[in-house]
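Justification of resources, computational component.

The compute hours requested in this renewal are based largely on the per-chain cost of generating structure records like the one below. Each record pairs the submitted sequence with a full structure-token output. That output is archived, and it is also reused by downstream analysis tasks.
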Amino acid sequence: MAIITDTIVSHIDSIFCYAVELPLKLQREKDILIYGIKRKSTPNHIGYNSIFQNQNINPTNIIRKKITPLHDTFSHLCTKFKIHTSIKNKITFQKFPPWLWKIQLNTELTQYNKHETNPTVIISHFKEIIQNKYSNFSQIYTDASKSQHGTGFAIIKDETKILHKLPQESRIFTAENYALLEAIRYINLTSSNNNILIVNDSFSALQALQNPFSTNEITQNIQSELYSTKKNIEFMW
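The structure output for this chain reads:
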């Protein structure tokens, strides 16, 4: 049964609509975009050339109708939906041996449930940890937020506060990761102290750093920065 609207709708489209599925045309466009974006990050894949290198089509092979090359279809869809697919600083393999990878992460404060514990107790314990274990460390704090007004992160060191804005659609995990990455880069450029403590409230981002096989590009960049730095950088949640 077709769904009656002000416009003519095919029976097939009506069935897909009733099943809460995309029409075939939109599904094809979605599949092409997903495939194209995936292939752009893997230039060594056999399917890369069919999309991102100019294909010379022999007219004698097109008998009845013109076949639009996959490259042209993908480019048209990217323009239509304003999708940018630039791949920058893609890291495939890390330089460090995975069995030697380890970061210094202090998680003593995880014993407290922040929703049930008086904040003064947590703050008091935090100051105690800093005094007993990190008295000779320069401290840098990172934080990220996401709301209807935007997504961004901040880096705070002493009296310096650096704010960064990210695209609205960025995930909070991405923002937390970028905060860690930019904090390390800032430290390497400005800090004279070789002992650095980065305090971050994203346990998932800090845990991701511990994984030597992470597939997240930003996490890989952070690990690469940590591996190449000459400073002793430790983390605390």
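The longest strand covers residues 138-147. The helical segments are 11-18, 24-40, 48-52, 70-80, 119-133, 172-190, 203-209, 217-228.
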